[in-house]
Amino acid sequence: MNRLIDGKKISAAVVEQLALDTREFIATSGVTPGLAVVLVGEDPASQVYVRNKVKQATAAGFNSTEHRLSADTTQADLNALVEQLNNDPSVHGILVQLPLPAQLSEPDIIRLIAPHKDVDGFHPLNVGALASGGADLIPCTPMGCMIMLEQTLGDLSGKHAVVVGRSNIVGKPMAALLLQANCTVTIVHSRTQDIEAICREADILVAAVGRPEMIKGSWVKPGATVIDVGINAVEKEGKRRLVGDVDFSEAVDVAGAISPVPGGVGPMTIACLMKNTLTAARQQMSV
Ligand SMILES: Nc1nc(=O)c2c([nH]1)NC[C@@H]1CN(c3ccc(C(=O)N[C@@H](CCC(=O)O)C(=O)O)cc3)C=[N+]21
């Protein structure tokens, strides 16, 4: 029997618990967690994510502010905004929506965000902490995938996990978390030889490549748990549709459990951003 890993449902439970924890935190500290989301440019998909993030932050009981800058913003202007947010005690979490327009440096802006306000977990200090096993702020998408996997499988110890993709925002931190959970971890990527055969050995298959429906049913070991991180907008029958990196219609008949797109990893990512915001607020109030 096949199980759908319902990210919408699991994320709703995470946010519900978080709202309770937040209420308690506010009662004891007298401080409301604050999240600042920075959006440069007018990409319509980014606007949807940002709106969802602000909506969820409000549902969790946070203050949230949205900072919109025009597509031709200079590095100096963006730096000044980030520094202002770094110095604002009512802001506990800062998220700069990526990707940025070409004239802006992503590494520079990621390094400028105060590490203790870095709710994406992208600052080198947080990346290093994750690699050595003691991070407080963990990248939201991999954290969401781990919650889904633990709810589906319980203990992950000894399982062979294959991560498809090696990005700094998903593939690499995902592999670090799976290793921490005692999986045997393989990362495959565009230069990997015989990627299909390696995928077919996975007890846990995490697809994070950004290529629509690249992973076919024949790449999945029968009974494997499949987490689809891809969110790709494609035209299907003349309509705009979201599809994952996994060919869901094929993989659903082979996998033991699989997360859909939409309604899988996406909502979990936002829920984990909220978890990180509360974590950041807790840290800042205990100092
Ligand atoms: N600094 C930074 N941090 C991010 O976490 C970040 C980012 N930049 N840039 C863009 C990506 C993308 N991202 C998504 C989050 C939720 C959904 C989501 O909830 N998707 C819904 C569908 C939404 C729809 O219908 O369009 C779903 O999958 O069910 C999607 C995409 C976060 N990102």
If you had to describe this structure to a student in words, what would you say it looks like?
Keywords: Amino-acid biosynthesis, Histidine biosynthesis, Hydrolase, Methionine biosynthesis, Multifunctional enzyme, NADP, One-carbon metabolism, Oxidoreductase, Purine biosynthesis. It catalyses: (6R)-5,10-methylene-5,6,7,8-tetrahydrofolate + NADP(+) = (6R)-5,10-methenyltetrahydrofolate + NADPH; (6R)-5,10-methenyltetrahydrofolate + H2O = (6R)-10-formyltetrahydrofolate + H(+). One of its GO terms (molecular function) is methenyltetrahydrofolate cyclohydrolase activity. This protein has helices at 7-29, 44-60, 75-86, 106-112, 124-131, 140-153, 171-180, 195-199, 248-251, 265-286; strands spanning 3-4, 34-40, 63-69, 93-96, 160-164, 184-188, 204-207, 225-228, 232-236, 239-243, 257-258. The strands form 3 sheets. Strands 1-11-8-7-5-6 form a 6-stranded parallel β-sheet. A 3-stranded parallel β-sheet has the order 3-2-4, with helices on both faces. A two-stranded antiparallel ribbon has the order 9-10. Helix 6 (140-153) crosses helix 7 (171-180). With 287 residues, the chain is of the alpha/beta class. It folds into 2 domains: 30-115, Leucine Dehydrogenase, chain A, domain 1 (Rossmann fold, 3-Layer(aba) Sandwich); 140-266, 3-Layer(aba) Sandwich (Rossmann fold). The chain is globular, with a radius of gyration of 19 Å. The mean pLDDT is 96. Bound molecules: 5,10-Methenyltetrahydrofolate (GUE). 5,10-Methenyltetrahydrofolate is lined by residues 48-49, 52, 95-98, 120, 140, 231, 242, 261-263, 266-267, 269-270.
